[in-house]
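FORM 7B: Structural annotation worksheet

SECTION A. Query
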Amino acid sequence: MTDFVYHTPALLLPSIDGLNINPSGTYVDSTFGGGGHSRAILDKLGSNGRLFGFDQDIDALDNATADDRFTFVHGNFRHMANFLRYYGVTAVDGVLADLGVSSHHFDDPERGFSFRFDAPLDMRMNQKSDITAAEIINTADEERLSSLFRLYGELPTARRLAHAIVTARTTKAITTTAQLIATAEPFVNPRQQKKELAQIFQALRIEVNDEMGALKCLLTASTDLIKEGGRLAVITYHSLEDRLVKNFMRSGNIDGNVEKDFFGRQLSPFRQVNSKPIVADENEVNNNPRSRSAKLRIAERINPLNK
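SECTION B. Predicted structure
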């Protein structure tokens, strides 16, 4: 299976360049997917280099590279530190995360990630997970549904949409994408139909997979894992992710609060390599429209007392 069938990686060259790869270093591709970023990292590694590729979707295993320097880990990157410890690794030279959903997920009708197909409301990245989008739609109370549509989907009609869903499911359970769309359509601006439907599906996907919780775990673990001088490179696709990553790289903690020592020096364990996010150029967007919303931020692990 080729990378362009499974997934076309966004911001490939700037993210690999941003890692400033040490040929003999140890790296983590925390979102292996189609393996595009991993293959680019391996191209820069020498014979003593190591790369660990994480993916919770077992489908990604089909893309694993037959390379002695590479180890595929079937697991959620939120448990990155524990998995690496199992392999005897306690420190790495860089971590890459390409967040969001792969093209494979959007293009596989049965996975239920896209409003383009009538399919079961699933949206699980890990197919062994217990919680599906259908379960959330049919069991979450109105307040919870309203909150996730407002927070994760940034939908102005979140409360009315949640009320409509709760009302509709009293007559018949909402178990397919088509049923959800039919319930949501009265609250979608016809001039922005695709955008707002995508926001509804995005909100559910984030909730199903606890994407924000997993990202917080990844960022926190990277502080202890990445060696001084190593790099953290994160590609985000919506404002919540980007804001969290930006604040973490600036402050070194999830809350985004910058701590200072007695002399007023910032104690953040990271130095932001790019103060503004790197985005796809016109050529990349034309070749890969899904890269339009991608934002890359890079930070270098430092000892704040040695600034």
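SECTION C. Observations
The chain has a mean pLDDT of 92. Residues 193-209 form the longest helix (17 residues).

SECTION D. Sign-off
Analyst initials: ____
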